[in-house]
Amino acid sequence: ETGVTQTPRHLVMGMTNKKSLKCEQHLGHNAMYWYKQSAKKPLELMFVYNFKEQTENNSVPSRFSPECPNSSHLFLHLHTLQPEDSALYLCASRPSGGLPDTQYFGPGTRLTVL
Amino acid sequence: AQTVTQSQPEMSVQEAETVTLSCTYDTSESDYYLFWYKQPPSRQMILVIRQEAYKQQNATENRFSVNFQKAAKSFSLKISDSQLGDAAMYFCAYTQLMRFGAGTRLTVKP
Hints:
Largest sheet of chain B: 6 strands, mixed
Order of helices and strands of chain A: EEEEEEEEEEE
Number of strands of chain A: 11
Number of strands of chain B: 12
Structural class of chain A: mainly beta
Helix content of chain B: under 10%
Helix content of chain A: under 10%
Shape of chain B: globular
Order of helices and strands of chain B: EEEEEEEEEEEE
Structural class of chain B: mainly beta
Oligomer: heterodimer
Shape of chain A: globular
Distance between the termini of chain B: 41 Å
């Protein structure tokens, strides 16, 4: 248990659905991240938030919409996804400031887009 | 752009033996961190070991140690006395936006 939780753990959705992924951390961190992990590919950084402000959008399609209402919660809103968006979505957090230090990961949400 | 390369998609080791996983990276930065993360079949990624680039001494955590060659931009992970619980995907990562390698799947044979 790393103090970062993600819900749901599994999600199956159609291409016309709208769903949201939730991440919560209880570590007092101020930086939160969304990653996409596809089979046989490196982990892809999607979004970075520092103190609730988005500081990085790694050219992610607009069908993925992040939201960070406070430093403990991070959402990823999904709409009109494509089958190639099926992947494991990982959330991570770390303390802000200085060189980027160790990240703490959640267990991930396994997303399947039909 | 910074890249991280893990040239071994899969590795296998006998229980109690030693195995080394390779990682190279590309950067123009002089100060940074390097990490090895482990992702067991349950999928939760956990930190194995980290190295600060300005430190010449190689990091060690119990059975895990690194061979950090800054000039060669090489950062290998050595696992000694391998255990069945070491079986997992291992990812090398470089800070400044956390670039990850593609991973090495380690199998431990009893």
